[in-house]
UniProtKB/TrEMBL annotation:
It comes from the Eukaryota. Signal peptide: none annotated. PANTHER family: TRANSCRIPTION INITIATION FACTOR TFIID, TRANSCRIPTION INITIATION FACTOR TFIID SUBUNIT 5. Transmembrane segments: none annotated. This is Uncharacterized protein. It comes from Pisolithus tinctorius Marx 270.
Length: 219
């Protein structure tokens, strides 16, 4: 249900039974103990830029912060989706009832609150640009980019008029809708490659840090 890259050699996956597991790509061996989110479907997973934290979001409407070194639970949030900015100084959260918010990582202060009007479904996938000044938010058949330095926004349509799942490595944004994925430039907002089609409906998508690998999970 969820997948994210730790680095070029490992991924973290979230599962329907509430498990979160870390895997080595080369030999498909699990790394460390299984993290357990309490039986709810894990719908998102993210790694902090410094590699110290793993955050999972589940259908029980909570986000859990785990130690990447020990896989022990550190703390919980009541907003199920959680994304660190590239430098780790801020993080964005999203929920069906609260829309999305941006927090200061160190103080916990809310820097931006979209309000409930931006809530659009059980998943509101977000992605940051590499400089942390743009936040990409997906909707049904479209993408919205908020420029946090100018407090402005831009919106464009994508390849499918369906709910969109997105990921970014700071340079590109991968948009998965239905059975296909398109790649977009973070700066120009232009599509940069042909659309890739999968064998089934894509539930989650992730880009490796270099952009050399694209991972998809499907149901």
């Amino acid at each position: 249900w969820a997948i994210t890259f730790v680095d070029e050699s490992q991924v973290v996956g979230g599962y329907a039974n509430g498990d979160i597991r870390r895997w080595k790509i080369e030999d498909s061996q699990q790394q460390g103990p299984t993290m357990r989110a309490g039986g709810n479907i894990v719908e998102s997973a993210v790694i902090s830029k410094d590699g110290r934290w793993i955050v999972s979001g589940d259908r029980g409407n909570k986000a859990i912060v785990w130690s990447a070194a020990t896989h022990e639970k550190v703390r919980e949030f009541t907003e199920p989706n959680f994304w660190f900015s590239p430098d780790g100084s801020r993080f964005a959260t999203a929920s069906q009832t609260k829309g999305f918010r941006i927090y200061n990582t160190h103080s916990g202060d809310i820097l931006f609150d979209s309000g409930q009007n931006s809530s659009s479904g059980p998943r509101i996938p977000l992605a940051w640009s590499s400089d942390g000044q743009q936040l990409f938010i997906s909707g049904t058949g479209k993408m919205t980019c908020f420029d946090l330095s100018k407090f402005s926004s831009a919106e464009w349509l994508i390849h499918e008029n369906q709910p969109v799942y997105i990921a970014s490595n700071g340079k590109f944004v991968a948009c998965a809708a239905g059975p296909s994925v398109s790649l977009w430039d973070c700066v120009s907002h232009q599509q940069i490659s042909s659309t890739v089609t999968h064998t089934g409906r894509i539930q989650y998508v992730a880009l490796s840090p270099s952009g050399g690998y694209l991972a998809c999970s499907h149901g």
